[in-house]
Each structure stands twice: as C-alpha cells, then as structure tokens.
Amino acid sequence: MNTKTTTTVPVITIDGPTASGKGTITRLLAQRLGWHILDSGALYRLVALAAHKHSIPLDDADSLQPLAAHLDVEFAIDEDSGEIVTLLEGEDVTQDLRSETCGNDASRVAQIAMVREALLARQRAFCETPGLVADGRDMGTVVFPDAVLKIFLTASVEERACRRYNQLKDKGLGVTMRGLLDEIAERDARDRGRAASPLVAAEDAVQLDTSELTIDEVVDRLWSLCQVRLN
Ligand code: CDP
C-alpha cells in the first residue's frame, strides 16, 4: 500500500476503537483550531451502503473496489437544521449512515485491502489549509504517517457500549445494551485482527484512556498537546 504523503498542511490524527469518542473529540478540536475534518469511517460506511444499493455482497472485493473508487458522495448543509446531510448517488442517507448495522457492514468492507487502497487518495484530498483533524483507525499509521500529532483514544468496552447506547437512543435508533456490548466486542476483534491496516496505535501516537474523562477534559488535554506540537 502507498504510504507516502506530500502535503505540508498540518494534520492531527485521532484513531481508536468504535465508540471511543473520536467523532465528538475530532469535531470539537477542529472547531477550536478552525481546521477541517475527515470522518474516514463515514467513507467505509458509504461503501457498505452503496454495496447494498447495488446488491453487491460485502466480501466481493472485485466489485467493491470500483464502487469505492468512484463513490458518488456529496456533503451538504441542511438550511433548516444547519446539520450536515450526506447524499449517496443523490439520495439522503444521513440517518442510515449512523446505524449500528451500517457500522458493522462498514467494518466488513474495511477488511478488504483493495477497498482501503481505493479510498486512500480521497482521504488525503481532505488535507487543506489551514489544517486537518482526521478520525479513523489507520489515520496515523497509513493515511497520514507524517501527522504532526497522533492520538490513540481508548475506553473500556462497557464505557463505550454505554456511550453508544445513549447516542443511538437520542437519535431514536432502537438498540439494547446487551446487543451493543456483543457488537462492539465483535467489531473490535475484526478491526484489530484484519491483515489490511489493522486497528493499532502508531508507534509515535499519544495514547489516552478516556473511560474516566469527560469530553471537555479530553479536548483540553489534546489542546495542551497542540500548543506544544504546533508552536
Ligand atoms: O463510529 P464508529 O467508531 O463506530 O465507526 P466508524 O469510525 O464510522 O467506522 C466504521 C467502521 O469502518 C469501523 O468499524 C472500521 O472497521 C472501519 N474503518 C476503518 O477500517 N478505517 C478507518 N479509517 C475508519 C473506519
């Protein structure tokens, strides 16, 4: 896999397992810095949704590769709510994208090296001035190995299941705590155990266990690290 990056735009990578708080922390840190965001998981989720739409099995690498390479996606702002709306081939998939089923399907297509390779250029294209905060599993190890600051967030399975339960309940998506615990453990195993870009902290990443920390505490710690690394 090509691991070279040529950009001089500063990148902060935030990797970690499912429901470790990466999405929220990435958004808040990027807001403080005034930088762009890459939600790389959304791209894998979109490949999984596109596969369903075109009746492609989630292990059919030869069909998934061109699908990932030519994904027709648009991110727009809803004028009423101010929220980001995701359009896949012109269809609003914002709600479907966040379901646990979609996350699990994403983790299956993400096992395929050809799919990962096909998404590489698209992810790097998010790198624009003044900077990028990139959220995922392999941001620090593969996609942006030259990042100025690499963070690896963790939290216990129980804490992560609890956070995801509250998140999905707030969105009105039906889940049970038992089901979530099982799904998260299964997804962790698949993400850590795969051959292509497994979930692992980069050697030079700062690891942070967020089990006992509030969101604001995590953002404050990362902000302090930014003061040191960006100056
Ligand atoms: O929000 P959550 O952490 O549950 O998932 P996500 O970040 O949206 O990612 C969904 C799935 O995509 C993960 O379980 C990974 O298998 C895969 N993924 C990946 O392999 N590499 C990335 N850079 C991002 C996501």
Descriptive overview:
With 231 residues, this protein is α/β, with parallel strands linked by helices. The chain contains 10 helices and 8 strands. A 5-stranded parallel β-sheet has the order 2-6-1-7-8. A 3-stranded antiparallel β-sheet has the order 3-4-5. Helix 5 runs parallel beside helix 9 (177-193). The longest helix has 17 residues, at 177-193. The structure holds cytidine-5'-diphosphate (CDP).
- Which structural category fits the helices and strands? alpha/beta
**Which superfamily, in CATH terms, is the homologous superfamily?**
P-loop containing nucleotide triphosphate hydrolases
Shape type: globular
Identify the CATH class.
Answer: Alpha Beta
Structure in a nutshell:
The chain is an alpha/beta fold and 231 residues long.
Topology (elements, then pairings):
Elements (H helix, E strand, L loop, with lengths): L10 E5 L6 H12 L2 E4 H14 L7 H9 L3 E5 L6 E5 L2 E2 L1 H4 L2 H10 L3 H12 L7 E5 L2 H5 L5 E6 L2 H14 L6 H17 L12 E4 L5 H15 L2
Parallel strand pairs: 1-6, 1-7, 2-6, 7-8
Antiparallel strand pairs: 3-4, 4-5
Helix pairs in contact: 1-10, 2-5, 3-6, 5-9, 8-9
The structure holds cytidine-5'-diphosphate.
Properties at a glance:
alpha/beta; 48% helix; Rossmann fold; binds cytidine-5'-diphosphate; five-stranded parallel sheet; 10 helices
